[in-house]
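In the previous chapter we treated chains in isolation. Here, by contrast, the input contains two separate entities that must be folded as one system, with a combined length of 740 residues.
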Amino acid sequence: MSIKWRRILRPHNLLATAFIFLAMWVFSFIHIDHHRLDPFTYGIRDYDVTDIVYSRLRKTETILDDRIVLVNTGNPDRMVLHKMLERIEAAQPRVVGIDLFLDSEKDSLTDALLQRTFQKNNNIVLVTSLENFDEEKGYFEREGSCHPMFREFTKTGFSNFPGNRTQTIRMFSPETNVQNYKARSFATEISLIYDSTSFKSLKKRGNELERIHFNANEDSFLKFEPEVVLDSAVDLSKVMKDKIVLIGYLNDFQPDDPIVDRFFTPLNQKYAGRTIPDMYGLVLHANIIRMLLDRDYVNYFPKWATFIFALALVYANTFFFFWNYKYFWYFKSFPKILYRWAHLIQVIEIALLFLLTAWIFYAYKTRIDFTVAIVGLLLAFDLCIIYYYLKQNIRILGKVPDHFPIRHRKKKTPKTVQPIETENKS
Amino acid sequence: MKTILLQLLLMAPMALWSQTYMTVTYTKGKVHYYAPQQKNPTSIYPGLSLSSEGKIQCEPDSKVKLLCKGKIYEYTDSKLHSLDEIARQANNSSSLSFIGRFWNFLTGSMDGTEDATHLQQHHEKSMESLRAGIKGYGSKEFEIQANLMYEGKLSNEEVTFMWSPDMDTPFCFQLSRQADDEVIMVAWTKENYLSLKLADLTLSSGEAYEWQIITSKTDPKAPHSRKMQFVYDPEAAAKALSQLKAQSAYESASKTEQTLMELYTFETNSFYYDAYLGYQQLIGENPDDVLVKRAYAAFLARIDKMDEAQSMIK
C-alpha cells in the first residue's frame, strides 16, 4: 500500500464503517410500531424528494399531445356510451380505451348494443381490476370488474396502481401475474396496440415496476365532453382518426365535484401533506401511454453504485470523526465541540444529498436512492463514539494498529557486473 | 408593375407571420367563433385551430380553453373576446418578463407623449387596435358618447358612469345582461352622469353586461349611445394586484413606480376604470412629476380622452 493510501485507509476507520453498516443491517430487522404517530408520519412517508421537481421545477409550458384524445363520459350511462362509441369508431381511431368498469349486466337491450359495438371493432381496450393478491404464490387470483359478455370481444388491461387511493401514485406495473397468465396494464395494452415497438423496449428494461414520468396534465390533451362527441355537426375524424381515444370520467375539478377516480400525483402543488387528489385516472393513464410511446422513462442509478457511494460517504465521516476526536481531545474540549460540529455537518450533508437527488432527477431524469447513505450519516457519529469506547475496552480492537504497517520491500542487491576480460591481442 | 408584384410577394409572408394561431383544447356548452370578415359565427370544438384575427363568445354556462404558445387561456364569460388579446399576451409573456414588459410599456408612453404629433399618433394607434376588438367602436353615428374606461372589466363597488354631451333632455340609463338582454335596471336622470353601487345590484361575477343611454323609449331616432359592454368581476382586480405584489420587481421599486406598475396591471387586465381612478389619484399626489404626467397623458390618449391628454402635456 502506498503512503498516500495508507494515510486515507486506516484500520479503525474501516472497522468503524463496517460497524455502522452492521448496525444498519441489524436495525433493518427491527419493526417499530409507529401506529400512534401515523398522522404525523404519513405526511413524511408519502413524500419523495423528487416530488418537488414535478411540483415546482417542471416547465409550465403546455405541449399538446397529438396522439391522445380524452373523452369525458360524465356520469356513465351505457346507452350514451354506446352512442358515443358509435360516433368515435366512425372517426377511425387506432385504439379506444374505456376506463369504466362494466362489471355487471344492466339493461339487456343497451348491453346487447354495447356488446355488438365491441364485437364490430377490434381496437377497444376495457379496463379491469386485479383482485386478491396471493402473497405465497405471488400472483393475483383474478382480473375482475369487467363482465365476460363484454371482455369476450375486447382486449383488457388492469388499472391498479401500486399503493392505495390515499397514497401518491409514482409507479405503475407494466404487467403482472394472474394465476396462469400475465395481465398487462391498461396503458401498456393500449400502447402495445398503438405501437408494438414501444412494448418491446419496455420489456427490454425488464423492470417489475416503472416510475411514471409525469410530463403532462389535463390541458396537454384534447378533451371532449359527451355533447360535443354526440353533436353530428362535429367532424370527429379530423381529430380522432388514427389516434388513441381514452374514454372515462373526467370532470371539471369543480369544488362540489365528487372525488371519483382521482389520485394524488407528484404534480400536486402541495408536495407534502396533500389533501385533495389532483389528477383523474384517465389523465394518469394518458401520462403513462405518452411515456411509453416516447420511451421517456425515468432511469435509476444502479444499487451497487449507490451502496459504494454510501460506503465512501460513511467512511469519510468516520475519518472526520477520528481526526477531530484526536484533535479536540488534545485541547481537552471534547465532546462538546465535536458534538456541535458533528450534528451541524450531518444536517448539511443530508440537505446536500436531498438537493443532489432533486438536481440529478431534474437534469438527467435519473432517480438516485440515497436512503442507505442518509441512514448511515444519521448513525455515523453516535456509532463512532460507541466504537471508540469498544476499542478502549475490547482487547482485540485495542491491538489493531492505527495505521496499516509499511511493507518494506527487500532491496534487490545489484548484480555485480563482471568485467569482460578481453584479450589483448595486440 | 414588377416592383408592386415584388412588394406584394414580400408582404404576403409578413401578413401571415403577423397572424397567430391557437388550438381549442376543450369546450363545454356552446362556444361561437367569428372568423375574420364573417358575420355568422360557427360552433367550435376541441382540435380546431383559430386565427388570432377572429373573435369568440361563450354562451352562458359554457367554457373554452385555448392553447397559444404553450399557455392555456380559459374563457367562461359571455363577452365577445378578440383572439388578438390572447396572441398579444402570449407573445409578451413568452418573450419578456413582467419588468421587461412594464418598461417597454412605459417607454412606449414616453415616446407617445413627446409632443402633440406623437400623442396623436399614439392615440390613433391605440384606437386602431381597439377597433379590431370592440364591436361598434369608432362609429360616430351615435350622438351620445361614453368613454372606453367603462368597458373591459369593472370591479369597483361604486362606479360613476359619464357620457357626453350634456343635453337639456333627460337621459335614460339602461343596464342589461348581454347573454339574454334581460334588463337589470333603468334610471332616468337630468345629469350626464350616474353613480351606481354595482355591489347592490343583482350582478353575477364574471358575467357580461351592457349599458346604453337613450333619450326616448319610443323614438329610435332620438339621440342615444352605443351599447357599452363590461364584465362585472368584483374580486379580479384585487387578485391581479396581489399577483403583482408577489413579484420581486414590485417590492424593490419606488412608491411611484409601484403605483405605475399597479396601473399598468389594471390596464393590461382591462380594468380601465380602476386605472383611470388610480392615475387621477397619482397625478393629484405628484402634480409636477413629468413621468407621471406623461404616463397619464398616454393613458388618456389610449382611452380616447384626447382633450385631457393634450392639456396634460402642454
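The longest strand of chain A covers residues 124-134. The radius of gyration of chain A is 31 Å. Compare these points with the single-chain example from earlier in the chapter.
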